[in-house]
Amino acid sequence: xxxxxxxxxxxxxxxxxxxxxxxxxxxxxxxxxxxxxxxxxxxxxxxxxxxxxxxxxxxxxxxxxxxxxxxxxxxxxxxxxxxxxxxxxxxxxxxxxxxxxxxxxxxxxxxxxxxxxxxxxxxxxxxxxxxxxxxxxxxxxxxxxxxxxxxxxxxxxxxxxxxxxxxxxxxxxxxxxxxxxxxxxxxxxxxxxxxx
Length: 196
Ligand code: 2AM
What we know:
5-stranded antiparallel sheet; alpha+beta
């Protein structure tokens, strides 16, 4: 199964972003982009690719440990960016250092469970909002429009392991279905809040 570890924003946060993103859909070229579904929005922590089902018990144990060692932390959806002409994303603000730490721990957990992980690239926290079908859409106005977006912070209290079921139908534009296969609580007793 195809797996990734992620932080899932709460409905209150995705509702705010949905409202703001409505403006983006009015920009030139918006119909030429494949927009991700709100229910699927997430920050990937680590991408595990194909994992054998028999690895799941040990992987779950390692992920649980990674979560337990990490204090809960505040995060918000904030601004945006792009990967060239390929993808448009919303960014994060708040304790991004804690998000990075959780990403590194999720990566290490997967490695220890025997998942062959790719070499580290610089971790760029991002929530993919749209992907270009074939390029040719200038994403800069979209990034500029996201620049004014600053969501209400929430407390990241969970690490999730998500299964991505790729579309099989071959229907152009069909999106993968995500299914949460595990959730583990971060350490709420040591929640790291600046000044509190
Ligand atoms: P993306 O949002 O930037 O496309 C499920 O596919 C999640 O895993 C997505 O968030 C996706 O990132 C990420 N993902 C897919 N393939 C990946 C890869 N090879 N390396 C890192 N992340 C990947």
